TrEMBL record:
<dbReference type="GO" id="GO:0016747">
    <property type="term" value="F:acyltransferase activity, transferring groups other than amino-acyl groups"/>
</dbReference>
<keyword id="KW-0808">Transferase</keyword>
<feature type="domain" description="N-acetyltransferase">
    <location>
        <begin position="7"/>
        <end position="176"/>
    </location>
</feature>
<dbReference type="Pfam" id="PF00583">
    <property type="entry name" value="Acetyltransf_1"/>
</dbReference>
<dbReference type="InterPro" id="IPR016181">
    <property type="entry name" value="Acyl_CoA_acyltransferase"/>
</dbReference>
<dbReference type="InterPro" id="IPR000182">
    <property type="entry name" value="GNAT_dom"/>
</dbReference>
<keyword id="KW-0012">Acyltransferase</keyword>
<dbReference type="InterPro" id="IPR050832">
    <property type="entry name" value="Bact_Acetyltransf"/>
</dbReference>
<protein>
    <recommendedName>
        <fullName>N-acetyltransferase domain-containing protein</fullName>
    </recommendedName>
</protein>
């Protein structure tokens, strides 16, 4: 059994992209995340305006990824404005003090890697003076993952992900 002590979380490097794209492709095929196959690309995974991004490694192999993004940025879905407004009401902070947990994926091979990645993103958001928030597909396993870690549901917002229209669940990190 692998211990979480055997997992190392570190900032993402350009050289991680080939492994991360394989993980993302597998996640899309098995779990439908990301929803659109067309976004299984390096420029979707690593966007220019991200606040930070990390990978989990085990035995020298990359096994997962997470990023923090600002709330509303050019080219994002208009539904994110609705989400941002709800997050602001729920947390009492302005949009520039929110950090959206995003591009979160693991290969499923190392138990605990997702929790460590999420913990890193929450810690980094806090250190930057931001409140971590996220939106999640209502019918996926990820919703239960966040609930078990104390994330609070604060509403829903319609998202248009390619041809898929989703009533995404909006969540706020524990303690906010």
């Amino acid at each position: 059994m692998v211990s979480t002590f055997d997992i190392h979380v570190r900032p993402r490097l350009d050289g991680d992209m080939p492994a991360l794209l394989r993980i993302l492709q597998r996640s899309h095929e098995l779990f439908g995340y990301p929803v659109r196959a067309t976004v299984v690309r390096a420029d979707w995974l690593a966007v220019s305006d991200e606040l930070g991004a990390w990978v989990a490694e085990h035995d020298g192999a990359v096994v997962g990824h997470i990023a923090l993004h600002p709330t509303a940025t050019p080219g994002h879905d208009a539904g994110e404005d609705e989400a941002s407004a709800q997050w602001q009401r729920a947390t009492g902070v302005t949009a520039d003090r929110l950090a959206v947990v995003s591009r979160f994926v693991t290969d499923g091979s190392v138990r605990g890697s997702g929790t460590l990645l999420l913990d890193q993103a929450v810690k980094a958001a806090g250190e930057a003076g931001r409140v971590p928030v996220l939106l999640v597909e209502p019918n996926g396993d990820a919703l239960g993952f966040y609930r078990r870690r104390g994330w609070r549901e604060i509403g829903t917002a319609v998202q248009q992900w390619g041809e898929h229209r989703v009533e995404a669940v909006l969540m706020v990190a524990p303690g906010h």
